[in-house]
Amino acid sequence: MRNGQNRLRNHNQGNCNCDFPGENTPCSCFLSRFRDEGIKRIRDGLYFADVNLVCVGPGGCHGIDALIIYEWSLIPISGNPSIVGDRTKVGNDRVEVAGSGRFVLSVVVTFRCVREEEFTDCRKRTAVAFTQSNP
């Protein structure tokens, strides 16, 4: 994937709420969003970011789920919950949480829309409180 990123040029990064397609933006991800509250529990210990990648722009503007970047963080409120493994994942919307207790799980998602050799990134953040028993 790194080689694919290196081939792309003319990178634009902005806030999804203000990254509207314009004269200088080949394609935009301003309509990309979280579904509902954005983070959902699959089962105790396993959570995922529920996102919808939408790309808008002329000829060939498209998104690739495998290029979405997820940056996870956890703030414990009670107990001993913690993220297992890498906190930054590319193309993998899931995160594992060990331990038990109450916590706030947050994720920053970087959406990417591509057209030819140009791409535009935009970021969105959400946080949701959970309680889990020892998985």
List keywords for this structure.
mainly beta, single chain, disordered N terminus, elongated, 135 residues, four-stranded antiparallel sheet
State the helical fraction.
under 10%
| Number of E strands | 10
Note poorly predicted spans.
1-22
Domains (count) = 1
How far apart the termini lie comes to 33 Å
Q: For the report, how would you describe the main beta sheet?
A: 6 strands, mixed
Principal-axis shape equals elongated
- SSE-based structural type: mainly beta
Q: Name the helix and strand elements from N-terminus to C-terminus, one letter apiece.
A: HEEEEEEEEEE
Strand content: over 45%
- Radius of gyration using CA atoms only: 16 Å
Mean of all residue-level pLDDT scores: 82
Layout of SSEs?
Blueprint: H1 2-7, E1 9-15, E2 33-43, E3 46-52, E4 62-63, E5 69-76, E6 82-84, E7 88-90, E8 94-98, E9 101-115, E10 118-132
Parallel strand pairs: 1-10
Antiparallel strand pairs: 2-3, 3-8, 4-9, 5-7, 5-9, 6-8, 9-10
Describe this structure in words.
With 135 residues, the chain is mainly β. It is 4% helix and 56% strand. The strands form two sheets. Strands 1, 4, 5, 7, 9 and 10 form a six-stranded mixed beta sheet that branches. Strands 2-3-8-6 form a four-stranded antiparallel beta sheet, with no helix packed on it. Strand 2 (33-43) and strand 3 form a beta hairpin. The model is unreliable at 1-22 (pLDDT under 50).
